[in-house]
Sequence to fold (140 residues):
Amino acid sequence: MSSRKEPAGSALAQPLRPPSAARFLLYVGLFLLGAVLAVAGALVQPAWFPGGLLLALAAEAGLCLGAGRAAGRRAGAAAPAVGWAVAAVLLTTSRPEGDFLFAAGIGSYLFLLGGIAVAVICATLAPVRQPDGGRVRLRK
Fold:
């Protein structure tokens, strides 16, 4: 037994609660916006190869970072990132007629792998929920 006493209202001791209805709808909207951005990026990146690829990846980074800052939580950045990844993976499948969206080229691979890397980086850089209290270090 340690002699260290935790405050009764510690944020670490509180059970996890599901998000409110408004926050859940925000996450669903961000998920769908990420999916739309993946479709738009898949169409833009082969049209103007170096510029289109950079534009698509910059748009994803802007969406994920902006959503994380606006929501104030990592889930805000992760929702569009997951939407982007799901849509991009679904776009890689070919149809029975032989149609496909991604050609077997360096641009498509850079778009897929770069997009996943951007999503992970943005979700990592998003703000983390901090416990309530002052902006001082505890137990100096």
Q: What stands out?
A: The chain has a mean pLDDT of 80. Residues 73 and 128 are 5 Å apart (CA to CA).
